Amino acid sequence: MSQENEHVQCLIIGSGPAGYTAAIYAARADLKPIMYTGMQAGGQLTQTTDVENFPGYPQGIMGPEMMEDFRKQAERFGTDIRFGYISSVDFSSTPHKIVVDEIKTITADTVIIATGATAKWLGLPSEQQYNGFGVSACAVCDGFFFKGQDVAIVGAGDTAAEEATYLAKLCKTVHLLVRRDEFRASKTMVSRVLATPNIIVHYNTETLEILGNGKNVTAVKVLNNKTNVESDIEVEGFFVAIGHKPNTDIFKGQLDMDETGYLLTKPGSTLTNVEGVFACGDVQDMYYRQAVTAAGSGCMSALDAERYLAAKEHPIEA
Fold it and tell me: What are phi and psi of 253, to 5 degrees?
């Protein structure tokens, strides 16, 4: 049954490090936040294994376990966490209108968007089979686990070039698989790749399958699309760097975003172009994309929301 017009001070959309941190700060500020987790409660980190670069976990922690810690902390301060997805929004008037699961309407004085971004994958069954066991979409997150080993990375843009040079500092050999006969990356990044002796660039190369022993990655089967010759490259790690898609489809036409769909926020803040709507985490960060930076911007969004509400309640006289 539709429950129309529940009104909240602070609605948080999304539940990764950014959303949960925003919830912790908003709840402690007595904004009584309500969070809708989205279909993947906990966000991208629930699909990773070891997280060793988040401060406060000296022994490292599994991604899903860390998100469970975040969730418990948000709940401890009174966040109302609900499983559900936002099907549409209307930010044209205040309070803002949000429809949940296509049936329930909520009005909110402030909205914090923490819907994150989704890594683009090649779509191979073996990619998902070995995800977290040799397959990764984040070199900065997982490169350390392949110190001194051979790895492959697929992609031709700036991200692939940057991640390849990052991996080259840690790994013995980096095989960069480029589908066409040229990069899409900037000349500066291409020059950096070509000047790195332990990066081997494989042009005209398509990934057919990621091979493994049932537990870990052992090789990648590739096809040279010029010669039509298949071959196996022995590697222990396989990185996908073909981009991320920000989860912003429902905000199109409502919020300013760049050409790839990342939400635009005012420099040094989490403010969007709509008053009372804030964005944090990977949904507005195509550059860093780390759990710790997402958490930091989640904190910022809650503080921004709190200050916005305080200013509305007690406007400064001119």
Answer: 85, -10
pLDDT band at 140 (very low <50, low <70, confident <90, very high): confident
Residue 250 near residue 230 (C-beta atoms within 8 A): no
- The CA-based diameter of the chain, rounded to the nearest angstrom, is 74
Between 3.40.50.2000, 1.20.1070.10, 3.40.50.720, 3.50.50.60, what CATH number should domain 121-240 receive? 3.50.50.60
Lowest mean pLDDT among 49-53, 78-82, 202-206, 224-228: 49-53
- Structure tokens given for 211: 């091979």
Residues recognised as catalytic: 138, 141-142
| Superfamily of domain covering 6-118+244-313 | FAD/NAD(P)-binding domain (3.50.50.60)
The better pLDDT of the pair 77, 62 is held by 77
